[in-house]
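Lecture notes, unit on protein representations.

Consider one protein chain, 94 amino acids long.
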Amino acid sequence: MLVKTWNQPDPFPWIASTGFTSPRHEPKSLSAIGNRCGKMHWYNDAKGFGFTECNVFVHSRNVVSGELRSGAKIKFDVAEGTKGPQATNVQVLR
C-alpha cells in the first residue's frame, strides 16, 4: 500500500526560518489586506484618483494627511473595494 505524505502537516515548522523551502509546501501568498508603504505610480489631480506601484487604487477622499501627487511616498491600509484592492487612511510621507 502506498502512503501519501504530501497532505500531512509539516512536523518541523522551524526549518522555514532557516531559509529552506520544502517541496511539500508552497509558500503562502501575502494577503492583500493590511498596512503598507509604497509610492504613487500615477495620480490624476483633476479626477482625484490614481494607482500605487503595486496596483492599489487610491482616491483623494481617502487621504488623511498631505498632498497626493505622482511619485509621492505614502503609507496606507488596504481594503477590498468593489473592483479590487483600495487604499484607505492614506498618509503622504513626502
